[in-house]
Design brief:
Blueprint (H helix, E strand, L loop, with lengths): L3 E5 L8 H14 L4 E5 L5 H5 L11 H4 L10 E2 L5 E4 L8 H6 L7 H12 L4 E5 L6 H9 L2 E7 L4 H18 L6 E8 L6 H14 L12 H5 L7 H4 L4 H16 L16
Parallel strand pairs: 1-5, 1-6, 2-4, 2-5, 6-7
Antiparallel strand pairs: 3-4
């Protein structure tokens, strides 16, 4: 298959976005896929979650400004088939510096293109900041697909409406006409609560096939894993959370297979 770039995005923080990006990257790598995880979030949580250091000059920052090739920032991880471009604190000023450049919403796509075209990776996973600022918009401008993790809470639906509208605007404007919503992942799910079941039902009602079948549970082991610099599949590979992410990775692979049919942003065929 051709290299597929998938952005994990949600403008709201604390929804399990980074945990999901890291876990899916690890699951795809475990599945034999060659994976590059790009930490585009200045908080660098994905970098820490894989046990890498936040080194000055090691992020996408210089590449966004056009002063260094992005491939030079690729680092191996301790996990087979999984490489990473880490984040750093300096990436926080990229929102300002990149805004001053020409084609500022396409800087990441231009930097990423040589890596994408090289065929070195099957999947490029991008962990976006918890906002709809310049870095996230750059990620959406470069991605083929977007996966939106949302927490099972009332306000999740409002945030979901916003980001799906942004995806549609990016497509319609011509900034990235191939961008598609791959799917929505319910995180921190506790099926014992009425709220979780109600939110799940509402998302399914409005987005139908776009909702992944596998909901990610809220577990202590999942919360612990990043502090050990390991994805859940390595920290506690036999846990329910690890199993859930492996199931989700299988769904993602199925949707991204060459024979799968595309579904529009609104979750309806042809939209």
């Amino acid at each position: 298959m051709n290299t597929r770039t998938i952005a994990f995005a949600n403008q709201k923080g604390g929804v399990g976005k980074t945990t999901t990006a890291v876990s899916i990257a690890a699951c795809l790598a475990e599945n034999g896929k060659r994976v590059l995880l790009v930490d585009l979030d200045p908080q660098a949580n994905a970098t820490s979650a894989l046990g890498l250091q936040k080194l000055e000059g090691g992020s996408v920052y210089q590449s966004l400004l056009g002063t260094a090739p992005l491939a030079a920032s690729i680092q191996p991880t301790a996990f087979e088939n999984l490489s990473m471009i880490p984040s750093e604190v300096d990436l926080a000023v990229a929102e300002v510096d990149v805004a001053r450049t020409e084609n500022y919403l396409h800087r990441f796509r231009l930097a990423l293109q040589p890596i994408h075209d090289s065929g070195q990776f099957d999947f490029i996973i991008v962990d976006c900041p918890p906002s709809l600022g310049i870095l996230t918009m750059n990620a959406l401008g470069a991605a083929d697909r977007v996966i939106v993790p949302i927490q099972c809470e009332y306000f999740a639906l409002e945030g979901l409406a916003v980001i799906t509208r942004v995806i549609q605007q990016i497509r319609d404007s011509g900034a990235n006409p191939v961008l598609e919503l791959s799917g929505i992942v319910m995180t921190m799910y506790d099926g014992r609560t009425n709220l979780a079941q109600q939110v799940l039902a509402e998302v399914k009602k409005h987005f139908g096939m776009k909702l992944y079948k596998m909901a990610i549970p809220r577990t202590v082991r999942l919360a612990e894993a990043p502090s050990f610099g390991k994805p859940i599949t390595k920290y506690d590979g036999g846990s329910y959370a690890a199993w859930a992410y492996r199931q989700l990775a299988e769904e993602i692979l199925e949707r991204e297979s060459p024979n799968s049919e595309g579904v529009g942003v609104a979750g309806k065929e042809g939209n």
